[in-house]
UniProtKB/TrEMBL annotation:
This is RNase adapter RapZ. The keyword Manganese does not apply. It comes from Veillonella absiana. GTP binds at residues 62-65. ATP binds at residues 11-18. Residues 166-285 form the RapZ C-terminal domain.
């Protein structure tokens, strides 16, 4: 089995590509920054034949390459023809966040060296739009500290033992905090009865037994879960057959504290029972006014 892993890191300037490269280097990846895309196929072929020492490679490609960046799409097609496995990691953040970071460092945007940062960001998003749509991972660093980014990278890109199958992450979130950018599938459970309007449940999470029992006491919840689980049970093995290695299921309600948490926990338990390699994250749960929570298992730190 080919254990070679090639990560192509790209995305918005100021979104954290440098931090990603440093973290991957610490994880044992051979890292190259700002490589001309035209060189990617040749370098990948050399590293692929280099054995264990060069079996994990991370390359940063972005608009700093100027005209050379236009060759990225062609190079990706060449990798596919060469049957070289690769994954695209796209770094992103809101324009407001990127502008603040630029101002803090007193840097100008590479596409607007003597103009407004907003002008440069607009041009950059237009240039990167096509590669963003091809990305395997979209990492939104808007509200992410460096330590959380490192945790995320370790979980996603530490060498996976062969034969273990696809990795599944179930993420609960609140729509008022934004949709997780890296989700492969999203479920909106705002139609379920909302414990927020029950005073004794308002400040308790969906992992508290009384709140969880309340959500599950309605017939609509049982009907939803039947369709919910059936869809997942159909899709997961078919995604695995297509070679997908990582699958993110996002479950959202208004605040990410009650219904989405309960339904994410239900799916997590279902997938565990099925024998899948699954983890769970409650991205926005603690952003609410939480007074009581019950943690029945070790939950991984939220990232987005």
């Amino acid at each position: 089995m080919d254990t070679f892993r090639l990560l192509i890191v790209t995305g918005m300037s100021g979104a954290g590509k440098t931090q990603v490269l440093q973290a991957l280097e610490d994880m044992g990846y051979l890292c190259v920054d700002n490589i001309p895309p035209v060189l990617i196929p040749k370098l990948s072929d050399i590293c692929r034949q280099g054995g264990d020492r060069t079996s994990r490679v991370a390359l940063v490609v972005d608009i700093r390459g100027g005209e050379f960046f236009k060759a990225l799409s062609e190079s990706l097609d060449t990798l596919k023809e060469m049957k070289v496995p690769y994954e695209i990691v796209f770094m992103d953040a809101t324009d407001e966040t990127l502008i603040r970071r630029y101002k803090e460092t007193r840097r100008s945007h590479p596409l607007a060296p003597s103009g407004r940062i907003t002008t440069g960001l607009k041009k950059e998003r237009e240039i990167l739009d096509s590669v963003r749509h091809r990305a395997d991972y979209i990492i939104d660093t808007t509200n992410m500290k460096t330590s959380k980014l490192k945790d995320y990278l370790k979980k996603r890109f530490t060498q996976v033992e062969s034969g273990r199958g696809m990795s599944i992450t179930v993420v609960s979130f609140g729509f008022k905090f934004g949709i997780p950018l890296d989700s492969d599938m999203m479920w909106d459970v705002r139609f379920l009865p909302n414990p927020f309007y029950i005073p004794e449940f308002r400040n308790k999470t969906g992992r508290v037994k009384e709140v969880n029992d309340y959500i599950h006491s309605f017939e609509i919840t049982d009907e939803f879960k039947e369709k919910y689980f059936d869809t997942i049970d159909f899709l997961v093995p078919n995604y695995e057959k297509e070679g997908k290695t990582q699958f993110v299921v996002a479950v959202g309600c208004t605040g990410g504290m009650h219904r989405s948490v309960a339904m994410a926990e239900a799916l997590y338990a279902h997938l565990l029972e099925k024998g899948y390699r699954v983890s769970i994250e409650h991205r926005d749960m603690m952003k609410n006014n939480v007074e009581e929570d019950y943690n029945p298992h070790e939950v991984e730190t939220s990232l987005a």
